[in-house]
Write a structure and sequence with these properties.
This protein has about 270 residues and is α/β, with parallel strands linked by helices. The chain is built from ten helices and ten strands. The protein starts with a strand and ends with a helix.
């Protein structure tokens, strides 16, 4: 087993929650896994417990609440109930509970502060160790004030538009989270045609002998600058490839030039 590294979070969004994947992640030194109450048709928590309950103590586990079978809600009482149910279904308290994509209740953003306060209360009550906000599109949230979250999760990587990138950075400045996590570093999949047409290895220093996937993944840590990146896969070889990418260094000058190009294109 490799030395644990907290910079990679194994995301279970598209995962089948297979036990061998979690065993491989532990062997690779990955110590964080991330899921949500609505993954696997709202059965993620109970499936994790039944297939790998004995492995869960070896990981820092984050989950998300906010999506219910009948739709999205930021109702504080429903969120607390969802956290309580998560504890029962997982058989343990999560290390982080995120408010899941609150922009889906954009018409109810006036209650966002109350929703976040409810999650902060669950942490104080011992139902989870910390709380945060996970947002796919932070733009509707940039003017909202909430209690300071422990973790903020936003999209990261070369395919994030400059408007979303800047909104994520503005949100981090406004909310002052203790940790900033990225997610979806490949914009959905490494099989997208964009990765055939574009070589992200230009973002690495000294012509590192990296694969395109490694370069794209490593670059995501600077767009925006995040402490960890959540990435989903059921392929152990792909997961190993990404852990090896952490050894490479990003050329910050190239990243800055890229950001300037994104901004110029936005203003054109």
């Amino acid at each position: 087993m490799r030395t644990a590294d907290g910079r990679i979070v194994l995301g279970l969004h598209r995962s089948g929650h297979a036990r061998d994947l979690l065993e491989a992640a532990a062997d690779l030194g990955i110590k964080r896994i991330d899921t949500a109450s609505n993954y696997l048709r709202h059965r993620s928590h109970e499936i994790l417990k039944s297939t790998a309950g004995d492995l869960l103590p070896h990981f820092s586990l984050s989950t998300k609440v906010g999506f219910f079978p009948e739709g999205h809600s930021v109702d504080p009482a429903r969120l607390r109930t969802a956290v309580e149910q998560a504890v029962k279904d997982l058989g343990r308290e999560p290390d982080v509970v995120f408010l899941h994509n609150p922009e889906h209740s954009a018409s109810d953003t006036g209650r966002l502060g109350l929703a976040c306060a409810a999650l902060a209360d669950t942490a104080r009550a011992g139902l989870c160790r910390s709380w945060g906000v996970s947002t796919w599109d932070p733009r509707p949230l940039v003017d909202c004030d909430v209690p300071c979250p422990d973790v903020l999760m936003v999209r990261a990587g070369l395919l994030v538009g400059v408007d979303v990138l800047e909104a994520a950075e503005s949100l981090a400045t406004r909310w002052r989270p203790s940790l900033l996590w990225g997610m979806s570093p490949f914009g959905g999949s490494t099989a997208q045609q964009v990765w055939e047409r574009f070589d992200p290895r230009v973002f690495l220093r000294e012509s590192a002998p990296a694969t395109k996937a490694q370069a794209a993944f490593r670059s995501a840590y600077g767009l925006p600058r995040v402490d960890a990146v959540a990435v989903g896969t059921d392929n152990v070889d792909h997961l190993r490839e990404l852990t090896e990418a952490l050894a490479y260094e990003v050329d910050e000058n190239v990243v800055q030039e890229y950001r300037q190009l994104l901004k110029a294109r936005q203003l054109a």
